[in-house]
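Input chain follows. Return structure tokens only.
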Amino acid sequence: METSQLDVRPEKARNNNHLKLENKTANYEFTIIVPVYNEEDNMAALENKLSAFISESLLNTCVLFVNDCSTDRSLERMAEICNRREHFCYLSFEKNAGLSAALKAGIEATQSSFVGYIDADLQTAPEDFNLLIPHLQEFEMVMGIRANRKDSFVKNMSSKIANGFRRMMTNDGVSDTGCPLKIIRTDYAKRIPLFNGMHRFLPALIQLQNGKVKQIPVRHFPRVAGKSKFNLGNRLVAPFIDCFAYRWMKKRYINFQISETNID
């Protein structure tokens, strides 16, 4: 695989190669987080499609599964994948904690320069990450917009309503925050506060740090295996409530950058 032409390494990493690397994600430029909850039937497709993407990725890439205490054989399947695939690893929760917690745990574990996210249902294509990567030098977050969505009328309509209300409340200018194809600069991602519903506000939370967000159209596919974990309650009602929580937090958000230190 050709090495990337995009200089993504943070300045400190370039100048301190003697530092011990704490986990394998530090050996990569890009870590893809895949939250998993009862996706046993999708694990084989995930292995194949993510492996294929790794071989053609514009960045040196690895995959980090986060098992949200699945009750099926998802954990067993991902452990098998990670045992036979060099560029795969996993975390597993002791108790079910939800999508936001799974994302935050993956972000905290990531030591690559960039961290991405894709759903285990594969309704978006891993290879479309290559549409986002070229914009990473200009934007702190690059995310997909699902073109020609292959969801039901009810799901599409509830998502449209929730997105409209969220844009009004956050003023983030993002048309499809629910698209699971996203790449973020890891140093920005690590400063995102953890709260239930966090995953719905990732663009707004990057903008709170004065980060810039870019939206790129990507493909969308129907779910072919497993069952959706979302319903009207957590697709429509919960986002309305979370918007008010975000507005409260926004007024109290602390944003700072260190200009000088001798702690190293």
